[in-house]
Amino acid sequence: MNDVKLAVLGGEGTGKSALTVRFLTKRFIGEYASNFESIYSKHLYLEGKQLNLEIYDPCSQPQKAKFSLTSELHWADGFVIVYDISDRSSFAFAKALIYRIREPQTSHCKRAVESAVLLVGNKQDLCHVREVGWEEGQKLALDNRCQFCELSAAEQSLEVEMMFIRIIKDILTNFKLKEKRRPSGSKSMAKLINNVFGKRRKSV
Ligand SMILES: Nc1nc2c(ncn2[C@@H]2O[C@H](COP(=O)(O)OP(=O)(O)OP(=O)(O)O)[C@@H](O)[C@H]2O)c(=O)[nH]1
């Protein structure tokens, strides 16, 4: 069984728990305890594979630690970065998180393949008080090789489910790429033996 680890990050009150709980239970509860972090587990069957999905939903971070993310970056295979379309400061926070994830020393040295990231503009039902345009979200995502969508955890169960499935599929694609790029020990050894002995045999 494949383990897939997903971290849902974003500013305070953007709807990280609402999205996670909506995906796991198809329900929107309204108020969520925000003073403790959670790791949820779910078994999924996707693309012919059994998956053990773990979703990390942090409690709101204290200001000083908000961009350190060191443990999340090591732990997660992919990230859902959430902002609230009616709150510009949450968009700035999401941007800083994406830059942190895409920092060269984070994305290239530690990982053979760039992490899958999906940027989500949540609370689309509040579009009458919108502060962040759809195009801005789309551009931030495109510029940083992320997927993008806008939705409402409050009103759109199916869209939330499709959003999670999309990022999980991206993570699975990355697993396959990593597998391809990993030098296979036995293949390399066979190549080496062939190069050395194959050539000698020819010259005799
Ligand atoms: N209108 C609207 N409200 C939402 C939506 N999603 C979440 N909320 C509300 O936004 C508030 C914060 O939601 P949470 O899910 O607790 O947000 P969070 O990001 O997990 O919050 P922290 O853990 O405190 O950072 C709650 O009052 C939710 O009911 C949405 O799609 N539309």
Automatic annotation (TrEMBL):
Keywords: GTP-binding, Hydrolase, Nucleotide-binding. It catalyses: GTP + H2O = GDP + phosphate + H(+). Its EC number is 3.6.5.2. Pfam families: Ras. Coiled coil: none annotated. One of its GO terms (molecular function) is G protein activity. InterPro entries: P-loop_NTPase, Ras-related_GTPase, Small_GTPase. Belongs to the small GTPase superfamily. Ras family. This is small monomeric GTPase. It comes from Neovison vison.
